[in-house]
Amino acid sequence: AMVAHYAQLANLSPASRGSINVDLEKVQLLPKLYVQPERQLQAREFLEKLWLKQNITAPKVYILAPGAEFGNAKQWPSAHFARLATLLLKSDPAHVTVIIGSHKDREIGAEIQALIPDHLRKRSYQLCGTITLESAIAVISIATSLASNDSGIMHIGAALGVSQIALFGSSDPKHTPPLSPFAKILYLGLDCSPCHQRKCPLGHLNCLRQITPDIAFEAILDAISQRNLNAPPSTPVS
Q: Which of 48, 179, 184, 194 has the least CB density, counted as fewest CB within 10 Å?
């Protein structure tokens, strides 16, 4: 099956710099990940305990996954994630944000949480390093949308078929895109990218910094709208 999968990937339509158009109709072997209903129920019950004190019922859950194992050249700035969370929380009192990642992401998760305004922070939950991967997958499966870097969590979200945005900087979305019709790829395709370096060799990380939180916010809304229509999203923002 993997041989056929890679053969089909090799036959995708070429993408020009800064414009990523993965022809998913040609990728017949899209990854699929299923979560048992009882695991989803456990995830809902776990989350409900978090916001029970805030008197929030039936919220829309937005997952933020700020980690990326390879290095910070693949990581959207924490201030951008915090601003995105702020936009999501301000847009609707029924919105909550959940920050997930491994124990290595605890520091950046805490930084994002601290940057969210006080009056909104009560609807944001920092779970980096506090839940298992299995639990994180279950939480993602019941989320309204996912915002992540090019990471394992990104591919998990794609396999679950959730609405998502995928932020690319130093890596190449032509090589490792989220294989899902409900994913929007945010990639600027600057002259210096993809550099495939762990740290920005130029010291500015413009490939990710210049993807603003406002762009990401609008992309999330568009991805959700397309997901609700059960149709592939429009051409990714680039």
A: 48
Q: What's the token pair of residue 84?
A: 């995105």
* Under 8 Å between Cβ of 21 and 13: yes
In the chain the domains, ranked by start, together with CATH numbers, are 35-189+200-228 (3.40.50.2000)
Residue 236 has what DSSP assignment? Answer: P
Q: What are phi and psi of 147, to 5 degrees?
A: -120, 125
Instruction: Give burial (CB, 10 Å; 0-12/13-18/19+) of 36.
Output: exposed
Strand partners of residue 64: 99, 147
Q: Tokens 């639990």, residue?
A: 135
Q: Two tokens at 205? A: 């990380």
Orientation angle between helical segments 133-141 and 37-51, nearest 10 degrees = 90
84 pLDDT exceeds 70?
Answer: yes
| Residues forming beta bridges with residue 167, ordered by sequence position | 149, 186
pTM, full prediction? 0.85
Q: Match 């609008």 to its residue by tokens.
A: 218
- What pLDDT shows up at residue 6? 60
